């Protein structure tokens, strides 16, 4: 365990703390880091039937991708001193589903995730991403507060 660590980040303070913890674990156990940012694109269903034209939705999704890229750039700076292998990926879809799928696809042996992200009020109603990941992941999940 802690040889291939998946670290989902969203730019929140707890995701940065999770990245720090994952880096310490990877250094201690000679592991590697797989850092992902998941963006959830806009679509008509996600907007709860608020009518928007396709151009507006496309523009919004493009902006989300730019933000995701910026979050990954910050992550690269934060792990610049790490001596082990580090991979970065931008995923698109529902965050908890993409995290679990990525962990399986990449054969990660653990997930280190922040307890609270940037999802705000939606998290209150739908349950947190970290909660869903810990419930459905097939590998150990460390939730960092």
Description:
This protein is α/β, with parallel strands linked by helices and 145 residues long. It has a single domain, classed as HUPs (Rossmann fold), CATH 3.40.50.620. It contains five helices and five strands; from the N terminus they run E-H-E-H-E-H-E-H-H-E. Strands 3-2-1-4-5 form a five-stranded parallel β-sheet, with helices on both faces. Helix 1 links the parallel strand 1 and strand 2. It is globular, with a radius of gyration of 15 Å.
Short summary:
The protein is 46% helix and 20% strand. It is of the alpha/beta class and 145 residues long.
Separation of the first and last Cα atoms: 21 Å
Strand order of the largest sheet: 3-2-1-4-5
The number of strands is 5
Integer tally of domains: 1
CATH architecture: 3-Layer(aba) Sandwich
What is the mean pLDDT? 85
What's the helix-strand series? Answer: EHEHEHEHHE
In terms of DSSP E residues, the strand content is 15-25%
- Which CATH class applies here? Alpha Beta
Largest sheet composition: 5 strands, parallel
Principal-axis shape equals globular
Our count of helices gives 5
Share in helix: 40-55%
The CATH superfamily bears the name HUPs
Low-confidence stretches: none
**Whole-number radius of gyration?**
15 Å
Structural class: alpha/beta
CATH fold node name: Rossmann fold
């Amino acid at each position: 365990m802690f040889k291939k660590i998946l670290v989902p980040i969203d730019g929140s303070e707890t995701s940065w703390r999770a990245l720090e913890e994952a880096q310490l674990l990877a250094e201690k156990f000679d592991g590697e880091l797989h850092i992902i940012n998941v963006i959830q694109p806009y679509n008509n269903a996600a907007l709860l039937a608020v009518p928007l034209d396709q151009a507006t939705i496309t523009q919004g999704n493009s902006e989300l991708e730019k933000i995701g890229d910026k979050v990954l750039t910050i992550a690269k700076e934060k792990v610049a001193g790490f001596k082990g292998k580090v991979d970065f990926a931008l995923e698109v879809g529902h965050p908890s589903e993409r995290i679990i799928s990525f962990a399986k696809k990449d054969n990660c042996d653990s997930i280190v995730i922040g307890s609270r992200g940037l999802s705000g009020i939606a998290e209150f109603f739908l349950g947190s991403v970290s909660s869903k990941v810990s419930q459905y992941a097939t590998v150990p999940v460390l939730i960092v507060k």
